[in-house]
């Protein structure tokens, strides 16, 4: 009884807090990917690409394992087919290879690979190979080798060397595969052990892994990003998408295939007469890429343990969050009763999403097309403003901004003549003052519409957190793209200061 009363009181308290929340000033937290990175989460685009490539390598590994048969006769046939097949088929008797592999495979493996600890022998056993003891089998092999079989020993050595090299490739891959991909795969094996351990990419995998491999297959954007990343630790998907779409626009405008277009598209081999078919493919592949990214975020990132909330944020009384991330990191850090309202401005990763109801935004800013009205329509799907409308993403932040403006309207009207340029923040009444805290967002110009509408209110005081002096310098440079120089100078110093930089902790 006591527990239920306490629970009821908590609910009533939360309802009252919600009802009175609008009477208080707003403390709005704006977070970007740097917020997730501060939690040591692998959420850079390059982390995602490494995960994808890791799963591809696991798929390759499974294909290799599937090709290693479990019976000796099949083993002989596999060697025959893999090493000089024409020569084997015409000249040699596979029964000798069968005997040779039966009794001596791991012995030869030890010699060729220097396997003193018996790892190769263990590998053969793990994959279903059984070896007879020495004695009679060795006598049979010895007798066979003594017979008149010219060069068969060299051919056998070459064949066995090839199979051992294949095994080494398989084993080495296990140690070079991306750690995040391996952890994800291990979880899937634990969830569906009978399916996942069948070593069959097409039959044995659980539904989620089948879906992943399907989304990865022949995806233009995925391969394009992997090629562009080229070992770098950072890549901007949106900027790369913009390059491709602008190249398409140039193609339509010039009615020919400029050199830079072919460089951008690479293996896609776009042709002018059928460019609209390629645009359709780019759209479909982008949908598939976004769904694959959503799986990575929901099935892997959102299940990783979190470190403590950064002290810079934990000390604040945040009641609203504008998240440019797809993840739920902030929500996972907050107990239910003190969780603020969160606006996932670029969409929210959802474990239950499909291609049709995914609402994640991944696109480009609007740009004036050089290819005319038809090109504008063709490329509209890739533009953020269209995706926001089409996918019906949350835009609660617009209501918050409207309330900020409304709350300071009386003071602005009263002091406008006295302070024509900018009304000092301290001149507003306490109930009219609002705070904005920016953590982990680069202040990139692509989000100018949202950031400017928050920062450029006279009754808003903005704190921008930075990691180190290099990061602070980058933020100031990006701030310069959001507003005029005079505005930056006025808002970062003196009596009109409304922007403050603070080192994160």
Describe this structure in words.
The chain is of the alpha/beta class and 505 residues long. The protein is 57% helix and 6% strand. The chain is built from 25 helices and six strands. The protein has a six-stranded parallel beta sheet with strand order 3-2-1-4-5-6. The radius of gyration is 31 Å and the shape is globular.
- The chain-level mean pLDDT equals 74
Sequence of strands across the biggest β-sheet: 3-2-1-4-5-6
Could you say which overall geometry the principal axes of the C-alpha atoms support? globular
What is the subunit arrangement here?
single chain
**Low-confidence segments:** 1-22, 68-80, 82-117, 127-153, 155-160, 198-203
Structural class: alpha/beta
Number of strands: 6
Outline the biggest β-sheet: 6 strands, parallel
Q: Count of helical segments?
A: 25
Give the percentage of residues in beta strands: 5-15%
What is the CA-CA span between the terminal residues?
A: 43 Å
Helical content stands at: 55-70%
As a whole number of angstroms, the C-alpha radius of gyration is: 31 Å
